[in-house]
Amino acid sequence: PSVIVKKLFMDGVMVTVNHEIDFEKAQEIALDYDIIAEPEEKVDVIAELLKEDDEDESLLVSRPPVVCVMGHVDHGKTSLLDCIRNTHVTDREAGGITQHIGAYVVTINDQKITFLDTPGHEAFTAMRMRGANATDIAILVVAADDGVMPQTVEAINHAKAAGVEIIVAINKIDKPSANIERVKQELSEYELIPEDWGGSTIFVPVSAHSGEGIETLLEMILLTAEVAELKANPKRMARGLVIEAELDKGKGPVATILVQKGTLHVGDFIAAGACSGKVRAMMDDKGRRVKEAAPSTPVEILGLGDVPNAGEILVATENDKEAKHFAATFVSENRNRLLEETKAKMSLDDLFTQ
Ligand code: GTP
Ligand code: MG
Questions:
Q1: Greatest extent of the chain over all pairs of C-alpha atoms, in Å
Q2: Does 121 appear as a known binding residue?
Q3: Nearest to 141 by CA among 67, 87, 195, 89
Q4: Is the shortest distance between the CB of 329 and ligand 1 below 6 Å?
Q5: 171 CB near ligand 1 (under 6 Å)
Q6: Model confidence at 85, in pLDDT bands (50, 70, 90)?
Q7: Where in the cell (predicted)?
Q8: In this structure, what are the phi and psi dihedrals at residue 224, rounded to the nearest 5 degrees?
Q9: What's the half-sphere exposure (Cβ side, CA atoms, 13 Å) at 262?
Q10: Is 84 marked within a binding site?
Q11: Any atom of ligand 1 within 6 Å of the Cβ of 75
Q12: How far apart are CA 109 and CA 149, in angstroms?
C-alpha cells in the first residue's frame, strides 16, 4: 500500500490506505504491474443486509450479557466498575494499560460479563434509539446518601423504553448518611419495587469503596442473564454497534465497537453509518491486539475512512464495494437526519467560540 500511496502522491492524488480512488486511476496503476483491471457490476446488497435475519435456532450459541451501568452524576458508576474490575481483572499484567473505552469484559467463575460505563447520557440515548438490543441488563446506580435524582429518573426511562431489565445497585452504603430504605421508597414511585416489598426488581446494597455487596451484585447479573438465555450466531458476518469513535492524530479514525452478532475479523470490510473501510487492527478492552471478536465483545478498531457517530450500526460486508454501497445508502437515507446533526453541532460550536 505505501508504494501505491506514494505513487499516487507523486501524481498529485492525496490519499491514505483507507481512501477510494476512481477506476481510471486504479486501472492506470494496475497497468504498471501488468494487471488489466476491469470494473465490477454494481450489486444491490443493502436490502439483503438490513433484512431482519431469520437466524436458524441451531446456529445460536450462548453469549455473555451486555450490562450498562447508568445513573445520576457522581453516584458511583465508574467507581463500581473499577471495584468490579480490580477484584476480577483476569489478566493483571495488562491491567496498567490506559483504557479510554468505556467497555470492559469481566470474567467471574468462567462466565463473562461485558460492562458499558455511561459517561454522559447522550451516548446512551443514541444507543437506545439505534440499537435497543445493545444492552441486556441495566445496573441503575443510586447513591444511598443522595437518593433518586433527575438523571436517575432519566436512566429509568431510557432503560424502560429499550425494554431492558433493571437491577438496582444502592451504592455508598458505607456512608453514615446512607439511607437504603429511602431509596427503595423513592424508586417504588417509578414502579421499581424491591422483592422484599412484594415487587420483582432486584435491589443490591453495595459500596464501591469497601466492596461490600459487589459479589452479590455480580451473582444477580449472572442469574438474570441465565434466565434470559442470551444467544447469538458467531459464524455469520459481524453486526455491531458503535459505542464511541474519535479521530486519533496518529492512528486515524478509531471506533469502539460492540459486536452483537457474528464474529468481526481483522481484514473484514465494514460500514458504520456513513463511513466504510476495512478492519486494519483490533484491540480488546485490555489494549491487546486481537484477530477476531465474538458476540458481546467490545473492541477498538482501526481502518474506517471516517469517524462514525456513536450509536450507528456496524456491518461487516462481503467486499469493499458492498461496504461503500452501504455507507452511501446510509447517507442518502439519513440525509435529513445528518443535516440536522451537522446544524446542531455547528450551533454548539458557535456557542463555544463566541
Ligand atoms: P459520572 O460518571 O460523572 O456520572 O460519575 P460516576 O457515577 O461515575 O461517579 P464516580 O464513580 O466518579 O464517583 C463519584 C464520587 O463518589 C467519587 O468521589 C467516588 O470516590 C465517590 N464514591 C463512589 N462510590 C462510593 C462508595 O461506595 N462510597 C463512598 N463513600 N464514596 C463513593
Ligand atoms: Mg463515571
A1: 78
A2: yes
A3: 67
A4: no
A5: yes
A6: confident
A7: Cytoplasm
A8: -60, -40
A9: 17
A10: no
A11: yes
A12: 35
Q: Report which of residues 231 and 120 the model is more confident about.
A: 231
Q: Which of 15-24, 85-94, 263-272, 325-334 has the lowest mean pLDDT?
A: 85-94
Average of per-residue pLDDT across 14-31: 85
Mean of the per-residue pLDDT values for the chain? 84
Residue 333 DSSP one-character state: H
| Nearest ligand to the CA atom of 72 | 1
- Window from 70-74, 304-308, 316-320 with minimum mean pLDDT: 70-74
Distance CA 165, CA 76 (A): 20
Give the mutation target among 72, 74, 145, 172 for probing the ligand 1 site: most ligand atoms within 8 A of CB: 74
What b/e sequence results for 150-174 when a residue is b if at least 16 CB atoms lie within 10 Å of its CB, and e otherwise? ebbebbbebbeebebbbbbbbbbbe
**ipTM of this predicted complex?**
0.99
Q: Position of cell 499516487? A: 8
C-alpha to C-alpha distance for 246 and 224, rounded to whole angstroms: 34
